[in-house]
Amino acid sequence: MTTKAGPEVRSQMRRYIVQRLLMKGDSAPLGDDDLLFTSGRLDSLDAVELIMSIETDHGINFSDIGFDLTRLDSISAIAALVGQPSAELA
Amino acid sequence: MTAHNLALHFEEVVASSPDAVALYCEGDSFAFSELNQLANRSARWLTSRGVNKGAVVCLELPKIAEAYALAIACIKIGAPYAFLDPAAPEERARLMLERCRPALIVSVREGAGPRTLIGDASARAALHHALSQLEDDNLPLTSLITGADPAYVMFTSGSTGEPKGAVIPHQGVLHLVAWAKNDLGIGPGDRLTNVNPIYFDNSVFDIYAGLLNGAAVVALDALKGRPPAELVSEITKHQCTFFFAVPTLFMFLDSMHLLSPDWLPSISRFMFGGEGFPLARLRRFHDAFAGKAKLINCYGPTETSCICSGFEIVESVFETTDGLAPLGRLNPNFSYRILDEEMKPVPGGTAGELWLGGPGVGLGYINNPQETARRFCQDPLIDGYRSILYRSGDLVEADVETGVLRFRGRADNQVKLRGYRVELEEIDHALMACRGITRALAVVQHDASGASRLLAAYSGARIAESDLRQHCAAHLPAYMVPGRFVWMEDIPINANGKADRRSVASLLGEAVARAS
Question: What ipTM was estimated for this complex?
């Protein structure tokens, strides 16, 4: 696992999510605080991919955050979560 | 069960409860008598378009009322229908259509073959005008269809690189309907969700276990582009009582804080199947609905009429060290053998491949004798007469005392992703069709919570990940597109000279972790 600085995580996540949205034909603008799952722009299939990618890339265990997807519901939320020391996740 | 085919059974329900609601769809509701009239007119329309008993009709449609009515129309005239995903990549759709050799395709998109388009409001109106000119009483020829005749064709992933269409007889679904009534208590007054995609095996249960037991079916759009809270609210607004979906969807709703009695107060039974439900996640689901709703784990290959076993989740399930809930005992009218690689029965309590028998066994794969011969085989322990079993490829173990089956893995490279069956070879083939790639292997990576994702390794030319993703999306449905692609100079091979999927899986796991 590599800890990445906030802006880098943000742009990396943005690239990843924009690509997934494009695959679904969604090319609408995406703000850092726009809701991803609550809005329905990303679905259960994307959730699994996103969770596993965050688990692999950032060493965050989804069970440690109580399987709570609302904590990954925007680019800002993901960046904040990934930037936290693991002891403070829960 | 008196009716010998699905259509006669449906007509019996229509006669006994003509005014009860059969279908909620697109904001409208259809009483059993209305749905039956629409189906009878559709059956006459199909006949006028040259569709006769035994011919295949492809329905490339979303969940609109015509889709349900046409399916019932097909079973009334004995023409097996195949629901196809209207959003499937063109190449995949072409392969499925070629196998079906349909007499007619009713579709919302342009394409080859004898096709009627009902993609927009005016085309739909034209169809309805044509239907309105036709008689709406039941058809005499329906009684000539036997239980052994084909009812529908359901496509599933194939290891040769193209999907296979399992042909399912009426009698298989009649037994599914009886099981739903007797074991799950489905009957008039129930409302079943049809969240499962209509071209996906699980929707066979939603439609027939509902309609043929006098219950209503509520057609619901899947989550694509739609806020999940809206879907859940719609289920509750329609007062649905039975909710069947894949574990991935239930886990998603749980993660969004939507899987609770507050959000889903009308549901008395949840059922899930198609993939394992990780116990840690199932525990949360079970606890949330304790005393309020039953949870049922079901199992069944597409080739044996959708579902062949069910198991109600009880507290003791969580005391096992398995990580997965039991599959349950096989439903009435299924026989089975658990055989080793030499096709000999395994000793009690040990794992072997499950071979399924009985009237629920499918009639083979449509226009595909090679694959049919590989999977639908003579019972190796019987040689005096014909006894065809479906070779599931699932490794199971049966409890010696109770007969309860437990899943122990696969005998081949089939995996389950979001409830869909995926033959990894189909992804390999799709990738190798990409110019410059010499070898490709897809593997599944699991995480600690039981979630799984697809990764792919390839050798040959290095290609940008976004191009590979695009290439795959053009050939495969979204759930089969790998999440990551890793270039390797050489793909490891095993002693037989074949690409070694296990070694690749461990190398890929390391490569993906290193890249982060």
Answer: 0.90
